[in-house]
Amino acid sequence: MIELERVTVVSGPFRLVDCSFAVPARRYGVLIGRTGCGKTTILEAIAGLRRVTEGEIRLHGRDVTRTRPAERNVGYVPQDGALFETMKVRDQIAFPLTIRGCRRAAVRERVDEMAELLGIAHLLDRYPQRLSGGERQRVAIGRALSFRPKTLLLDEPLSALDDATRRQMYDLLRRVQRETDVTTLHVTHHREDVKELADTLLRLDDGRIEVVPMQAWADG
Amino acid sequence: MSGRVEQPRRIWSDPFFFAILATIGGTYVLLILVMLLADVTFLVQSRPEIPVAIDFESRGDGGRFQSNDPIETAFADSGLTIGLAEEGPLRLRRFDTRRPPYAARDLGAPHGDFGGPGRGAGGGRRASHPNRHPLDHVLLAARRSAADPPRHETIFDFGRPVTLRSLSLARPATQPISVELHGEGPETTEHRRLEPGQARLQLDVDHVTELVLRATAPIGRASVDVEAARQLATNEDGTRGDEGPGSASRPLAWQVVPPASAWEPSNDPATLTFDWADPVMLDRVTLFNTEAPTLIRLYGEGGKLLSERQVEPTGRNGLLAVTVEQEGTARAEVALPPRGAVAELGYRWIGRLRSDFERRHPFVARWTHNAVTMALRKPEIRYSIRLSLISCTMTAVLSLWIAIPLGYLLSRYHFPLRNTIDAVLDIPIILPPLVVGLSLLILFQFFPASVREAVVYEIPAVILAQLAVSCAFAVRTMRATFDQLDVRREQVALTLGCSRAQAFWYVTLPESGRGILTAGTLAWARALGEFGPLLIFAGATRMKTEVLSTTVFLELSVGDLGAAVAVSMIMVVSAVAVLILARIWGSRVLSL
Minimal Cα–Cα distance from B510 to chain A, Å? Predict the structure, then answer.
C-alpha cells in the first residue's frame, strides 16, 4: 500500500502542497496529469530522492518519510530507464542483489528468473548502448524488481515506444504485476495506459490529486 | 547523445564567406604545422658535430698522460691517429715548453704572465691565439738526446691546486736539492732548499699545482704528504710510484712528469701525419717555433689531395693558429722545419667512431645518428627523460587523486563558499608561472628546515611544482565530466540499495572513465611542459631536478641548439602521443 498524507514537496519554484492519496496493496495505480505538472516529483518523493517538507509517506504501513532511498525497498524505473552505461544487462539486474551481498548462485538464479519473466534472456550479455527502447525498459524493470521490492514506481515507461511495442509492454506489465504482487504506481500522460493497466486512477491537476473512480473514467 | 547537432554546411554554399574564414583561421593552423615542420627540417639537416681541440695536454678520453702512454694512439677515441711520415730514428714526442730539457733550453720562451724561464709560452691573458689555455705541451719530432743532462729532476704534477704538508726522501740528500713550489698564476712560485744530510722538509703550502725537485745527483724515491694525510710517492728511478693510504674525499689525477731530457727536438725537418677514421671538418692547426715555412697538405677520403698550403714561419718560440676550415679531411700532413712543433689541432667530427654498417649505408646512418640520437646518448638527457616520465606520471596520478573527489564535490553539491573555491581553482591557471614557483618557495620558508631541505631544490619540488598547476586543469576536466553524467543513474543506484559512496564507486566512477583518462592525460601533458615554477622552486640542476623543459633551457643556454631542438622534438612527440591517446580513448566532448 502506497499512502501519501498531506505531503508538501518544494523544489525551486515548483510546489506540490498538501497532497494525499493511496494505492492499495498489490494494485496497479496510474497517476495521470499534464506534462510538467509534478508527476515525477511525486515519484521521486516516494522513492526518497526528494525531500518532503511536510506530511507523511507510508509504504505498506511503514512510515518512510525520513528513510534513506536504499532502505525504502522501492523499485524505481525513471523515464529513460537510466541504465548503467558500463554494465552488461546481466550485471544491471544482478546489481541490487550484489550490493546486498547475496550469494552468487542465488544472484544467477534470480537474474535468469527475471530474464525469463521479462523475455530478455537473449540480451543478458549486451551493453545498454545496443538495446532498443522497449528492451531498455524491460531491463530497467528487471533491475528494479530483482531485489523483490514491495513497491514499483514507473515514470512514463512507455512514452518513447511505438504502438506494437507498447501493446507488448501492456501484457508484460500486467503479467509482472500478477506474478510478483508488487504494488505499482505508474505515471503517464497517455489515456490508453489507464484503460489497459489501471486498478486505481489518480489525476494530478494544479498541484492537487484526486482519485477518479474507474467507472467515471470509463464513462468518459 | 540526445541533442542532434546540425550537419556542418558544405563549403560551396557560401564561397566568399568561407574564403574569409579559412584565410584567417588557416593562418594559425598553418603556423602550427610550419613550426613543427621547421623543427623536423632542422633536425634532418643539422649534422651533429662535436668540436674537438687537441692540445696534447690531456688524452683523448680526458685522462692525463702518464709517462708511458704512446702519443700515436692516445686520441684514437677521438678518431685521430698520429704518426711520422718517414721511418727513421725520429720519434713523436710530447714536449713540455714549460720545462725544456737541457739540450733545448731555449725552446719555450718565458712568458711575462707566467714568470720565470721555461714556464709557459704564449696563451696568456695578453696573447691573441685561439688556444685559451697557457701553452704547455706541443707535439714534435724528437731524437734521442746526446747530451746528458747535468742535473736530475723529479716533478710532481698534481693536476689541481692542493695543500702540501711535507716532503720526504727515501735517503738523505747528498747534494743540495732545490725545491720549487708552483701555483696557478704568475708570481706564485716559492723556493725552498733541502740541505745535504736532510731527508725531510716541512712545507705547509696551499694552492700548489706542481712540485719540482732539482739536484746535481740522483734524487731517488721521494714522497709528499698531500691534504688529508694522503701520500704520493715516486719510485727510485723517478717514475710515478704508489699512492699511499689516505682519507681523501676528492680523487687526484696526479702524475710524475717523465724526464724530458732523454729526448730533444730534432734538428732535421719532419712530416707529422694526422689520420682520421672518418673525414672531419678540420678547423685549425696551431704551429709553434717554426723558423722556416711549413707545408700543410690535406687529403680527403681515398687519398685525394684537397689542398696544399705553405704557412709563413712563426719565428722563434712564436705561435701561429692557421685557420684551415677544410671539410672532409681524412689525412693531414704537416711538414715542419727543424725544431718546429704542432701546438694544437681543432676539428669537428660526429663524436664517435662509425661502425662498418654506417660506413656502408650512410643514408640509414642519418636516421640512426642525428641530433635526437646524439641527445639520447647524453646521460643528462637520459636522466631528464626518466625524471620527466616519472614526475609527470606521479603528478597525473596525484592530480586525479585530488581532482576526482573535488570535481565530484563541486559538480554534485551546493555548499557555502562553493563559488569561492571554484574561483580559487582558477588562480594557478591564470597566475604567471614564475609567481607560482615563487609562492611555493616562500611557502616552504615557513616549514621546518628538515622539511624544507628535503623538498626545495629536490625531486619532490619538481612534482609539487608540476602538481600546483596541472591539478587545476584536472579538477576542471573532472568537474565537467561529472556535470555531463546523468544524476538520474546515481539516484536509481540509491533506490536499488546503494549508499552514496557505493553509488559513486560502482556507477559514477566507471562511467566517468573517459573523463578520468582525459583529465589524467591533460595533467600529464601540462606537467611535461611545466617550466617556470620548476625553475624557481626546484632549480635547474643537471642530473638532479632536470626535466625535459629544463633540458631545453639548459642546452640552449650553453648554445647547443641541436640538442635543444632534439629534446623539444621528444616533448612534441610525447605530447602528440598523449593527444592521440586522449582523442581515441578519452572523452570526445571534453577537449584538452
Answer: 6
Beta-carbon separation of A95 and B510 below 8 A: no
Does B249 reach chain A within 8 Å, measured CB to CB? no
Sort A84 into a burial class: Cβ within 10 Å, 0-12 / 13-18 / 19+.
Answer: buried
Exposure letters B333-366 (e unless 16+ CB within 10 A, then b): bbbbbbbbbbbbbbbbbbebebeeebeeeeeebe
**Among all chains, which residue has been given the C-alpha cell 616552504?**
B444
How many Cβ pairs within 8 Å bridge chains A and B? 62
Count other Cβ atoms within 10 Å, centred on residue B162.
Answer: 23
User: In tens digits, what is the pLDDT along chain B, a chain of 592 residues?
Assistant: 344 456 677 767 788 888 899 899 999 999 999 999 998 888 887 777 788 888 887 777 667 776 667 888 888 888 899 999 888 888 888 877 766 655 565 665 444 333 333 333 333 333 333 333 346 788 888 887 665 555 677 878 787 788 888 888 888 888 888 888 887 665 667 888 888 888 888 888 888 888 888 787 778 888 888 876 577 777 777 677 777 766 455 667 676 765 555 677 888 899 999 999 888 999 999 998 888 999 999 999 888 999 999 999 987 777 888 999 998 899 999 999 998 899 889 998 877 777 778 778 877 777 777 788 888 888 999 999 999 999 999 999 999 999 999 999 999 999 999 999 999 999 999 999 999 999 999 999 999 999 999 999 999 999 999 999 999 999 999 999 999 999 999 999 999 999 999 999 999 999 999 899 999 999 999 999 999 999 999 999 899 999 999 999 999 998 888 889 999 999 999 988 888 888 887 766 555 4
Identify which of A78, A86, A100 has the shortest CB distance to residue B492: A78
DSSP string, A155-205: ESTTTT--HHHHHHHHHHHHHHHHHH--EEEEEES-HHHHHHH-SEEEEEE
Q: Would you state the cell numbers that stand for residue B340, as one nine-digit string?
A: 718546429
Which amino acid is residue B509, in one-letter code? L
- For residue A15, the domain's CATH number is 3.40.50.300
Phi then psi dihedrals of residue B224, to 5 deg: -125, 145
**A57, A99, A156: best to mutate for the B interface, most B CBs within 10 A:** A99
User: Domain residues for A60?
Assistant: 2-219
Q: Give the number of domains in chain A.
A: 1
Indicate yes or no: pTM above 0.90. Answer: no
* Å between A198 CA and nearest CA of chain B: 24
Give me the helix-helix angle, A104-118 and A89-99, nearest 10°: 130
**Is the Cβ pair A70, B486 closer than 8 Å?**
no
Interface test with B, best of A95, A129, A153, A182 (most B CBs within 10 A): A95
